[in-house]
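User: tokens in, sequence out, please.
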């Protein structure tokens, strides 16, 4: 079977992306990152999703980009916003997807994988610059130049199958593929058991997506 590396955060989008890659016939190797995020629940969820969907292998890598700060997801001194605002939100982690894809590219070369899947979305999303089609295209261009595999005529392809889907469309697609979204954690400030706050941007997008899709939301929320 052709091989693929899938970036798996443990959230709704990346779980759907893994299911899409499996349906497409790839032998999937999932990659999660401990980058200094404020909660560990999403890492537990990533391993859980990988096992449930049948990934061939799952790895978790520690990268200390959280030491730089600059994001509400890595710096406890910055509050996670609970209302939308203008511009790029403080939950943006500087250069995160660039770093993630770079490490995925290295593993893909070793595996002789054909594709790297990333679950970025540019429709119902928080406005991060590294979730746009332009970013994916630029990294694809880099991958064609930067690897032995590409120079020898077999560049790794970067696939972003959710890039132009609404959150409702993503949920419908995953539901049809049998994704159990109760296993996933999307919240920016989930508690140690993975229960969502229900107030942050990620929670609001997720809840609205289930409502628009007409599918029951299986998310476990913290008591208010």
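Assistant: Sequence out:
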């Amino acid at each position: 079977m052709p091989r693929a590396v899938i970036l798996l955060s443990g959230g709704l989008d990346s779980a759907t992306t893994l299911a899409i890659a499996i349906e497409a016939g790839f032998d999937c190797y999932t990659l999660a990152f401990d980058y200094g995020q404020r909660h560990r629940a999403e890492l537990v969820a990533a391993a859980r999703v990988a096992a449930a969907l049948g990934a061939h292998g799952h790895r978790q890598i520690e990268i200390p980009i959280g030491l730089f700060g600059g994001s509400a997801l890595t710096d406890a001194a910055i509050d996670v916003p609970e209302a939308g605002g203008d511009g790029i939100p403080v939950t943006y982690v500087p250069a995160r997807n660039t770093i993630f894809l770079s490490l995925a590219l290295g593993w893909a070369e070793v595996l002789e994988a054909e594709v790297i899947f990333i679950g970025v979305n540019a429709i119902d999303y928080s406005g991060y610059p590294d979730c746009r089609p332009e970013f994916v295209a630029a990294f694809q261009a880099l991958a064609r130049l930067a690897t032995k595999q590409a120079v020898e005529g077999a560049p790794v392809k970067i696939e972003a199958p959710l890039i132009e889907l609404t959150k409702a469309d993503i949920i419908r697609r995953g539901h049809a593929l049998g994704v159990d979204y109760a296993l996933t954690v999307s919240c920016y400030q989930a508690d140690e058991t993975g229960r969502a706050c229900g107030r942050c941007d990620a929670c609001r997008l997720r809840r609205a997506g289930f409502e628009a899709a007409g599918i029951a939301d299986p998310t476990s929320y913290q008591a208010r």
